[in-house]
Amino acid sequence: MTAETAKKPSVLFVCVHNAGRSQMAAAFLTTLSKGAIEVRSAGSQPADKVNPAAVEAMAELGIDMSAEIPKVLTTEAVKESDVVITMGCGDTCPIFPGKRYEDWELEDPAGQGVESVRPIRDDIKARIKNLIASLIPAAK
Predict the structure, then answer these.
(1) Beta bridge partners of 84
(2) How far lies 126's CA from each of 39, 74, 111, in Å?
(3) pTM for the full predicted model
(4) Are 24 and 124 in contact (CB under 8 A)?
(5) I need a labelling partner for 93 at 20 to 30 A (CA). Which of 12, 23, 74, 126 fits?
(6) DSSP for 26-45, written as a single string
(7) What pairing do the DSSP bridges indicate for beta strands 100-103 and 38-43?
(8) Who's near 124: CB < 8 A, 6+ residues apart?
(9) At what angle do helices 21-32 and 114-135 cross, to 10 degrees?
(10) Side-chain-side CA neighbours of residue 53 (13 Å)
């Protein structure tokens, strides 16, 4: 690990299925931070594929999530992250001292059409912009 990557903040997004909210948040953070933040996402009970309505809603903004695959939450992923953002995963997330934890209350897009996913997507985007500003104060 170089000194440059050691300074890069890391964020882990966690939801139950890692198929909608956490995937959209990870895609926004990756895109909007332009690589300045290390991004992970995982689920306590990962689905077999990413929610197609979430993929479609993000594609409308030019962000391609079609190749993403839900991943299982591991203790290592939490240990390696500076910030852990949960989205409705309850008590399934391991807690480690010295980490910043946030719980984002967001509607679950599972089983909903793209019309219902758009407001969730837009809420996540606004939260991501605030998160970037808190992690990289000089972000423009």
Answers:
(1) 12, 101
(2) 17, 27, 23
(3) 0.91
(4) yes
(5) 126
(6) HHHHHHHTTTSSEEEEEESS
(7) unpaired
(8) 21, 24, 25, 28, 104, 106
(9) 50
(10) 16
Q: What pLDDT, in 10s, does the model give residues 33-52?
A: 999 999 999 998 999 999 99
**How many residues in total does the chain contain?**
140
Q: Where are the beta strands (DSSP E) in 16-106?
A: 38-43, 83-87, 100-103
Mean of pLDDT over the chain: 90
Name the DSSP letter for residue 82. S
Taking phi over 0 as left and psi of -120 to 50 as alpha, with beta for the rest, 98 belongs to left
CA neighbor of 26 nearest in space, from 92, 81, 74, 75: 81
